[in-house]
Amino acid sequence: MENIQSRISQIGVVPVIKLNHPERDAANLARALCAGGVPVAEVTFRAAGADIAIRLMREACPDMIVGAGTVLTKEHVDRAQAAGAQFIVTPGLDTELVAYCQEKGLPIFPGCTTPTDYHAALKYGLEILKFFPAEQSGGLAKIKSMAAPFPMFKVMPTGGISLKNLKEYLSCPVIAACGGSYMVTADLIDNQKWEEITDLCKKSVEIVREARSGREKKL
Ligand code: 3PG
Protein backbone atom coordinates (compact mmCIF):
# COMPACT_ATOMS: atom_id res chain seq x y z
CA MET A 1 0.00 0.00 0.00
CA GLU A 2 1.35 3.39 -0.99
CA ASN A 3 1.97 5.86 1.78
CA ILE A 4 0.12 9.14 2.22
CA GLN A 5 3.10 11.19 1.04
CA SER A 6 3.34 9.40 -2.31
CA ARG A 7 -0.43 9.50 -2.84
CA ILE A 8 -0.44 13.28 -2.24
CA SER A 9 2.51 13.70 -4.63
CA GLN A 10 0.68 11.73 -7.28
CA ILE A 11 -2.42 13.92 -7.01
CA GLY A 12 -0.21 17.04 -7.17
CA VAL A 13 -2.55 19.64 -5.64
CA VAL A 14 -3.90 19.95 -2.11
CA PRO A 15 -6.99 22.13 -1.56
CA VAL A 16 -6.65 24.17 1.64
CA ILE A 17 -10.12 24.37 3.14
CA LYS A 18 -11.77 26.55 5.75
CA LEU A 19 -15.30 25.36 6.41
CA ASN A 20 -17.62 27.58 8.40
CA HIS A 21 -20.60 25.21 8.13
CA PRO A 22 -19.17 21.69 8.20
CA GLU A 23 -22.51 19.93 8.75
CA ARG A 24 -23.96 21.67 5.70
CA ASP A 25 -20.94 21.62 3.37
CA ALA A 26 -18.29 19.01 4.25
CA ALA A 27 -19.79 15.98 2.48
CA ASN A 28 -20.76 17.92 -0.65
CA LEU A 29 -17.33 19.50 -0.82
CA ALA A 30 -15.59 16.12 -0.45
CA ARG A 31 -17.69 14.72 -3.30
CA ALA A 32 -16.98 17.78 -5.48
CA LEU A 33 -13.22 17.44 -4.98
CA CYS A 34 -13.25 13.69 -5.70
CA ALA A 35 -15.39 14.22 -8.82
CA GLY A 36 -12.73 16.66 -10.04
CA GLY A 37 -9.93 14.12 -9.57
CA VAL A 38 -8.51 15.74 -6.41
CA PRO A 39 -9.25 13.27 -3.59
CA VAL A 40 -7.26 15.13 -0.95
CA ALA A 41 -7.89 18.04 1.41
CA GLU A 42 -6.13 20.02 4.10
CA VAL A 43 -8.87 21.17 6.47
CA THR A 44 -7.63 24.10 8.50
CA PHE A 45 -8.18 24.62 12.18
CA ARG A 46 -8.84 28.30 11.41
CA ALA A 47 -12.50 27.35 11.57
CA ALA A 48 -13.88 26.02 14.85
CA GLY A 49 -15.42 22.81 13.49
CA ALA A 50 -12.38 21.58 11.57
CA ASP A 51 -12.46 18.18 13.25
CA ILE A 52 -16.16 17.79 12.44
CA ALA A 53 -15.40 18.65 8.80
CA ILE A 54 -12.56 16.09 8.68
CA ARG A 55 -14.83 13.34 10.04
CA LEU A 56 -17.68 14.17 7.65
CA MET A 57 -15.39 14.36 4.61
CA ARG A 58 -13.86 10.98 5.39
CA GLU A 59 -17.29 9.45 5.91
CA ALA A 60 -18.56 10.88 2.59
CA CYS A 61 -15.50 9.77 0.59
CA PRO A 62 -13.64 7.00 2.44
CA ASP A 63 -10.92 6.76 -0.23
CA MET A 64 -10.10 10.42 0.05
CA ILE A 65 -7.02 11.60 1.99
CA VAL A 66 -8.06 14.19 4.56
CA GLY A 67 -5.56 16.04 6.72
CA ALA A 68 -5.61 18.89 9.20
CA GLY A 69 -4.03 22.28 8.57
CA THR A 70 -3.12 25.31 10.68
CA VAL A 71 -2.40 22.86 13.50
CA LEU A 72 -0.90 24.91 16.32
CA THR A 73 -1.20 22.77 19.45
CA LYS A 74 -1.13 19.17 20.66
CA GLU A 75 -4.83 19.52 21.36
CA HIS A 76 -5.39 20.25 17.65
CA VAL A 77 -3.34 17.14 16.76
CA ASP A 78 -5.42 15.01 19.13
CA ARG A 79 -8.71 16.35 17.80
CA ALA A 80 -7.55 15.92 14.20
CA GLN A 81 -6.44 12.35 14.79
CA ALA A 82 -9.63 11.44 16.66
CA ALA A 83 -11.61 12.75 13.66
CA GLY A 84 -9.62 10.55 11.26
CA ALA A 85 -7.05 13.02 9.89
CA GLN A 86 -4.37 11.21 7.90
CA PHE A 87 -1.78 13.99 7.93
CA ILE A 88 -0.96 17.18 9.79
CA VAL A 89 0.18 20.51 8.38
CA THR A 90 1.62 23.28 10.56
CA PRO A 91 2.26 26.85 9.37
CA GLY A 92 5.76 26.87 10.87
CA LEU A 93 8.25 24.37 12.25
CA ASP A 94 7.35 23.47 15.83
CA THR A 95 9.71 20.60 16.63
CA GLU A 96 7.64 19.58 19.66
CA LEU A 97 4.62 19.08 17.40
CA VAL A 98 6.76 17.24 14.84
CA ALA A 99 7.93 14.79 17.53
CA TYR A 100 4.38 14.43 18.86
CA CYS A 101 3.00 13.53 15.41
CA GLN A 102 5.86 11.15 14.72
CA GLU A 103 5.19 9.33 18.02
CA LYS A 104 1.62 8.86 16.83
CA GLY A 105 2.67 7.74 13.36
CA LEU A 106 0.95 10.73 11.75
CA PRO A 107 2.74 12.25 8.73
CA ILE A 108 3.45 15.94 9.33
CA PHE A 109 4.35 18.64 6.82
CA PRO A 110 5.64 21.65 8.77
CA GLY A 111 6.00 25.09 7.23
CA CYS A 112 9.66 25.76 6.45
CA THR A 113 11.15 28.59 4.40
CA THR A 114 14.66 29.22 5.73
CA PRO A 115 17.95 27.28 5.86
CA THR A 116 17.54 27.18 9.65
CA ASP A 117 14.12 25.54 9.28
CA TYR A 118 15.51 23.00 6.82
CA HIS A 119 18.39 22.14 9.19
CA ALA A 120 15.91 21.42 11.97
CA ALA A 121 13.63 19.43 9.64
CA LEU A 122 16.58 17.25 8.65
CA LYS A 123 17.07 16.15 12.27
CA TYR A 124 13.52 14.80 12.32
CA GLY A 125 13.88 12.77 9.13
CA LEU A 126 11.14 14.72 7.39
CA GLU A 127 10.81 14.22 3.64
CA ILE A 128 8.14 16.73 2.57
CA LEU A 129 8.00 20.27 3.93
CA LYS A 130 5.27 22.82 3.47
CA PHE A 131 6.93 25.89 1.93
CA PHE A 132 4.71 28.60 3.42
CA PRO A 133 3.80 31.30 2.57
CA ALA A 134 5.27 30.40 -0.81
CA GLU A 135 4.94 33.48 -3.00
CA GLN A 136 5.55 35.89 -0.14
CA SER A 137 8.70 34.01 0.96
CA GLY A 138 10.47 34.13 -2.39
CA GLY A 139 8.46 31.63 -4.45
CA LEU A 140 10.02 29.18 -6.83
CA ALA A 141 13.36 31.02 -7.00
CA LYS A 142 13.84 30.55 -3.26
CA ILE A 143 12.65 26.93 -3.36
CA LYS A 144 15.28 26.16 -6.01
CA SER A 145 18.04 27.96 -4.07
CA MET A 146 17.16 26.01 -0.93
CA ALA A 147 17.26 22.71 -2.85
CA ALA A 148 20.97 23.17 -3.62
CA PRO A 149 22.19 22.57 -0.04
CA PHE A 150 19.13 20.48 0.91
CA PRO A 151 18.42 18.15 -2.04
CA MET A 152 16.83 15.58 0.26
CA PHE A 153 13.56 17.48 0.69
CA LYS A 154 10.51 17.76 -1.52
CA VAL A 155 8.30 20.74 -0.80
CA MET A 156 4.62 21.56 -0.87
CA PRO A 157 4.45 25.29 -1.62
CA THR A 158 1.29 26.96 -0.37
CA GLY A 159 0.29 30.61 -0.33
CA GLY A 160 -0.31 32.55 -3.53
CA ILE A 161 -0.70 29.50 -5.79
CA SER A 162 -3.37 29.72 -8.49
CA LEU A 163 -4.16 28.28 -11.91
CA LYS A 164 -1.83 30.98 -13.28
CA ASN A 165 1.39 29.81 -11.59
CA LEU A 166 0.56 26.15 -10.81
CA LYS A 167 2.28 24.80 -13.91
CA GLU A 168 5.47 26.77 -13.26
CA TYR A 169 5.70 25.40 -9.72
CA LEU A 170 4.86 21.82 -10.67
CA SER A 171 7.40 21.81 -13.48
CA CYS A 172 10.13 21.96 -10.83
CA PRO A 173 11.15 18.45 -9.63
CA VAL A 174 11.56 19.69 -6.04
CA ILE A 175 7.80 20.20 -5.77
CA ALA A 176 5.85 17.26 -4.34
CA ALA A 177 2.47 19.00 -4.67
CA CYS A 178 1.06 22.53 -4.46
CA GLY A 179 -1.39 23.61 -1.79
CA GLY A 180 -3.94 26.32 -2.34
CA SER A 181 -7.38 27.68 -1.65
CA TYR A 182 -8.07 28.94 -5.20
CA MET A 183 -10.38 25.99 -5.96
CA VAL A 184 -12.15 26.19 -2.58
CA THR A 185 -12.51 29.91 -1.90
CA ALA A 186 -14.95 31.24 0.69
CA ASP A 187 -17.19 32.44 -2.15
CA LEU A 188 -17.29 29.01 -3.81
CA ILE A 189 -18.02 27.18 -0.54
CA ASP A 190 -20.42 29.64 1.06
CA ASN A 191 -22.45 29.78 -2.16
CA GLN A 192 -22.23 26.00 -2.57
CA LYS A 193 -20.78 26.19 -6.08
CA TRP A 194 -19.88 22.49 -6.15
CA GLU A 195 -19.75 22.16 -9.93
CA GLU A 196 -17.39 25.10 -10.18
CA ILE A 197 -15.15 23.51 -7.57
CA THR A 198 -15.15 20.24 -9.52
CA ASP A 199 -14.32 22.17 -12.68
CA LEU A 200 -11.39 24.00 -11.02
CA CYS A 201 -10.11 20.64 -9.76
CA LYS A 202 -10.29 19.15 -13.26
CA LYS A 203 -8.35 22.12 -14.64
CA SER A 204 -5.76 21.66 -11.89
CA VAL A 205 -5.42 17.93 -12.65
CA GLU A 206 -4.83 18.76 -16.31
CA ILE A 207 -2.08 21.22 -15.32
CA VAL A 208 -0.48 18.60 -13.05
CA ARG A 209 -0.45 16.19 -15.99
CA GLU A 210 1.03 18.75 -18.40
CA ALA A 211 3.68 19.93 -15.93
CA ARG A 212 4.75 16.39 -15.09
CA SER A 213 4.91 15.23 -18.70
CA GLY A 214 7.09 18.31 -19.41
CA ARG A 215 9.29 17.33 -16.48
CA GLU A 216 9.74 13.79 -17.85
CA LYS A 217 10.66 15.07 -21.32
CA LYS A 218 13.45 17.21 -19.82
CA LEU A 219 15.01 14.26 -17.92
C1 3PG B 1 -2.64 28.16 3.80
O1 3PG B 1 -3.21 28.19 4.87
O2 3PG B 1 -1.92 27.21 3.48
C2 3PG B 1 -2.75 29.35 2.90
O3 3PG B 1 -3.45 30.39 3.51
C3 3PG B 1 -3.34 29.07 1.59
O4 3PG B 1 -2.90 30.09 0.80
P1 3PG B 1 -3.75 30.62 -0.44
O5 3PG B 1 -5.08 31.05 0.13
O6 3PG B 1 -2.95 31.79 -0.97
O7 3PG B 1 -3.87 29.51 -1.42
TrEMBL record:
Homotrimer. SUPFAM superfamilies: Aldolase. The gene is eda. It comes from Candidatus Pullichristensenella excrementigallinarum. One of its GO terms (molecular function) is 2-dehydro-3-deoxy-phosphogluconate aldolase activity. It is an enzyme of class 4 (lyase). Its EC number is 4.1.2.14. Keywords: Carbohydrate metabolism, Lyase, Schiff base. Belongs to the KHG/KDPG aldolase family. It catalyses: 2-dehydro-3-deoxy-6-phospho-D-gluconate = D-glyceraldehyde 3-phosphate + pyruvate. This is 2-dehydro-3-deoxy-phosphogluconate aldolase. NCBIfam families: eda (TIGR01182), PRK05718.1 (NF004325). It comes from the Bacteria. Signal peptide: none annotated. The keyword Lyase applies. The keyword Transit peptide does not apply. The lineage of its organism: Bacteria, Bacillati, Bacillota, Clostridia, Candidatus Pullichristensenella. Pathway: Carbohydrate acid metabolism; 2-dehydro-3-deoxy-D-gluconate degradation; D-glyceraldehyde 3-phosphate and pyruvate from 2-dehydro-3-deoxy-D-gluconate: step 2/2.
